Give the backbone structure.
Amino acid sequence: MNYVVMDLEWNQSTNGQDEAPGLPFEIIEIGAIKLNQKGVMVSEFNRLVKPAVYHEMHQITSRLIHLQMQELQRGDPFPEVMDSFLEWCGEQEYLFCTWGSSDLTELQRNMRHYNMTPLSEGPLAFLDVQKLFSLAFEDGKSRRSLETAVDFLKMEKDIPFHRAFGDAYYTAKLLTHILCEKPEVLDKISFDVFRPPVSREREVKVQFDHYFKYISREFADKAEALADREVMSSKCYLCHRNLKKKLKWFTLNGKHYYCAAYCEKHGYFKNKIRLRRSEAGKVFVVKTTRPITPEEMQALKARSEHAREMHRRRNRNHKKKKDFD
């Protein structure tokens, strides 16, 4: 399998008001490096895209990437560049790799704008090298800039940053280093959810070393999502038993929901639900399940009690306001 390490540069409305529907960012450059399974660079791709939506360069974009609109006129239309890019990716199995999690979403958004065939009918697996760097060399939670990561590993900086090919080049060098030094973190696959699962049968269920991830199909709204049995279930992903909840589902902000359950064989588990809005305006769920210690269970219980108290206060205030009106 090959690794296609890519980076994009994009432009946007200069005033924030003349934004094209469904296309907040127009891709203006695609850069990529192809690595074989040993992390050896075998090919490269670098193309400018001629703008068709935003014909003035946003000042921040211009200052950051040192690229002028006149230069972009020498580029080619996005569909032509994208077709060339996919041909370059090749027929051999490959995995997209990016620094951060936004490039694949914007790539697919631009493809949709031109009615191109989707990259995938559902969530797209990829490697987020920014996340992998943190897992390999830091705390797994921090997210560093690309240049900071290069400096951390004392890598030579032989071409400029902040252009698509340059950033793809450095991302590829970092990925090669991770392949050599910390290959175990490559199991931490990420998923771009620009296109959620199209059916229950296509829902994503993936077990990692220390947690389990579930990505649901779309629901009409939040209420329907939170009424679904699979979404609200609590299971031990190690022995596949349905578990009785020790803490019922609760939320502090209406977007993230938590519960806890206990497995007699494997201990306490925390479930976290994140409600996400799809491009179609519907709702889907990303749920993670991970084991927790008794101490973490007590901390979660305190958060649950705080959430209940907040709910009671809101209800009292609402009742007072209703009585006053």
